């Protein structure tokens, strides 16, 4: 069994809508789409709806935590 992600229980959804991601990460739509454009988050469209993988959100948060820890001279 895989460990739970930061955003969902292990048996929950594997993708989130842009609105869910913006709310959870407390970022603006502009910031979210900048992250998508830079490839920091993975997404796909299903019809007219965009879906962002929770795995890529978890990886992004972990990268940010590691970068902050390094900046402060700590281990993440």
Give the topology.
Layout: E1 15-16, H1 18-25, H2 29-37, E2 43-46, E3 49-53, H3 54-71
Antiparallel strand pairs: 1-3, 2-3
Task: Supply database-style keywords.
76 residues, globular, 3 strands, three-stranded antiparallel beta sheet, 3 helices, alpha+beta, Arc Repressor Mutant, subunit A
Q: Main beta sheet: strand number and arrangement?
A: 3 strands, antiparallel
**Helical element count?**
3
Mean pLDDT: 88
> Based on DSSP secondary structure assignment, what is the total number of beta strands?
3
Query: What is the chain-wise order of helices and strands?
Result: EHHEEH
Low-confidence stretches: none
Overall body shape: globular
- Proportion of strand residues: 5-15%
Q: So, CATH architecture?
A: Orthogonal Bundle
CATH class: Mainly Alpha
CA-CA gap between termini: 25 Å
- Please, how many domains? 1
């Amino acid at each position: 069994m895989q460990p739970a992600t930061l955003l969902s229980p292990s048996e929950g959804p594997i993708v989130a809508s842009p609105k869910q991601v913006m709310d959870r990460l407390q970022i603006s739509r502009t910031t979210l789409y900048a992250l998508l454009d830079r490839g920091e988050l993975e997404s796909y469209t299903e019809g007219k709806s965009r879906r962002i993988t929770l795995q890529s959100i978890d990886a992004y948060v972990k990268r940010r935590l590691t970068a902050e820890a390094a900046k402060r001279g700590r281990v993440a």
